[in-house]
Design a protein that fits this description.
Length: 364
């Protein structure tokens, strides 16, 4: 049986080492170890690896570590993450790590992986708890395709990029992967009133609590993404010009994003002016905490299927309803491709539904 002793890392975090020990027919002792972030992942790897070792012993084959059997897809993933000169992003890195640690395809030699193996991996993804969306499966496949397109020309690893292209085509045709449906969810004023009251009461009860009512209002009126809001620095804010420099704004043509000046519609500057200048960032809070607080509030209040990112769509729709053209919308949202904003040109222009919203005064 494998053992899983905890491992204390230099950064203070704790990992888990999976250690497999076997006595070979020759009487020699065979040991193989590997470290993981999570105990569950370590146990899953050990279970698969023990089965492989036992099969080799039963068949009379020499037991070799996976690293001695040729370069695997897992090795290619490790090399890709290690040597990427561009910041691949937290989500992509986590997806690749999950593939490497939890799926059998990562243990295959690079030169043995064919398109049907990749398709089988995608089908296996749909059995993953919490992953029941072809759009999420497409995310995994897209991130993995980056490894396939890089491995051969950069390191000489024999991954077949054509096999990946064939698998992508088949998975799309069969419906195993697909682009996400365009969300149209907008919060009602009644839902926002309940959220704002909930957040304000929390802040009044404990002044150390993150002012989620202020962040929520700013998200709507600025149309900024959550990560962008939390990155904005005081030094990048120009109140006289009613604009702010958004660092590393998402851009389809730039993996690391592009620094972009965007307009701040009213009452964004008034909201910013309420924030204390104690730190470099205007909203010096943790992104995960903002997500959790918003999700928990919606659940507590019985508000269904509302995401924090929907506030960006709401804010953009509001500006379109006020009569802004696509170029004028782009000046606020930061979209480089106006085509992404075309759907807002069909929004019925009905004025500003937030004109008499009571919460504007509360956050300014």
């Amino acid at each position: 049986m494998a053992t899983f002793p905890p491992v204390q890392r230099k950064d203070g975090s704790t990992g888990h080492k999976a250690q497999i020990t076997r006595t070979l027919p020759s009487g020699k002792r065979y040991t193989e170890t590997r470290s993981f972030d999570k105990l569950k992942t370590a146990q899953a790897w050990a279970k698969k690896r023990e089965a492989e070792i036992d099969a080799d012993i039963a068949a009379g084959r020499e037991v070799k570590k996976r690293s001695e059997k040729g370069v695997t897809l897992g090795d290619a993933i490790d090399q890709y993450v290690k040597e990427s000169m561009r910041e691949i992003g937290k989500t992509k890195a986590q997806v690749l790590k999950t593939i490497r640690d939890e799926y059998d395809i990562a243990n295959m030699a690079c030169d043995q992986i064919e398109s049907h193996h990749i398709v089988a991996f995608v089908k296996e993804l749909h059995k993953r708890p919490g992953l029941n969306s072809p759009a999420t499966a497409l995310n995994y496949l897209s991130h993995l395709s980056g490894v396939f397109s890089t491995a051969r020309p950069l390191w000489g690893y024999p991954l077949n990029s054509q096999a990946m292209q064939d698998a992508q085509k088949v998975c799309g045709t069969m419906g195993f992967v697909s682009k996400p449906e365009e969300r149209t969810r907008r919060p009602t004023l009644e839902e926002l009133d309940r959220l704002m009251e909930h957040f304000q009461q929390a802040t009044e009860a404990d002044t150390r609590t993150m002012p989620m009512h202020i962040i929520t209002a700013f998200a709507i009126f600025s149309t900024r993404r959550q990560a962008e809001i939390l990155r904005i620095a005081w030094g990048d804010y120009e109140p006289d010009h009613k604009r702010v420099l958004v660092r590393k704004m998402k851009n389809p043509g730039a993996k690391r994003g592009v620094d972009t000046w965007v307009e701040l519609p009213d009452p964004c500057c008034a909201i910013i002016d309420t924030m204390p200048r104690k730190k470099d960032r205007i909203f010096p809070y943790n992104s995960d905490t903002v997500s959790r607080r918003f999700t928990e509030a919606c659940k507590f209040l019985g508000i269904e299927d509302l995401h924090f990112h929907d506030l960006r769509h709401e804010g953009t729709s509001r500006l379109a309803e006020m009569g802004r053209t696509v170029p004028q919308l782009a000046a606020v949202t930061g979209h480089k491709a106006w085509k992404s904003l075309e759907r807002y040109t069909h929004v019925r222009q009905s004025g500003d539904k937030y004109q008499d919203w009571k919460w504007i005064e509360a956050v300014t």
